[in-house]
Specification:
This protein is mainly alpha-helical. It is about 95% helix and about 0% strand. It is built from 4 helices and no strands.
Length: about 130
């Protein structure tokens, strides 16, 4: 973990330095680029702040939907002899599928929210 963290930090600093060098070079070459860069930064910051609020709520919904799924798996494993003795396997499976579908819906919402943010940032970067 520590080795990966230091490697990721090194990659981050390298990419940040390259980004700053490209922006500074573009602004020196064409001073009007500062207007484009500032506009792009403001728009991306607005998208980011909206996304962070939304993603936090969606992630919370996903965690709420995940909890009953794990609880059901745990309870089913503990009560497996009882479930089998009363021939309730199909009921347990139906309940599991219900919990799994609820969790999948919440997870898909998170994936779609993340993709929305990615598309907006890509489109904004291309347009400006």
């Amino acid at each position: 973990m520590d080795v990966q963290l230091s490697h990721q930090f090194t990659e981050f600093v390298t990419l940040l330095a390259r980004f700053v060098a490209v922006v500074v070079t573009a602004v020196i070459a064409n001073p009007y680029m500062i207007i484009v860069v500032t506009t792009l930064a403001v728009v991306l910051f607005i998208f980011r702040s909206y996304y962070m609020r939304t993603a936090r709520d969606v992630k919370r919904l996903e965690a709420i939907a995940r909890s009953p799924l794990y609880s059901h798996i745990s309870a089913t494993l503990r009560g497996l002899p009882t479930i089998r003795s009363y021939c309730m396997e199909s009921t347990a499976m139906d309940q599991f599928h219900t919990y799994c579908n609820q969790h999948s819906q919440a997870w898909y919402l998170y994936v779609v929210t993340t993709r929305w943010f990615q598309m907006r940032t890509d489109f904004t970067s291309v347009v400006l």
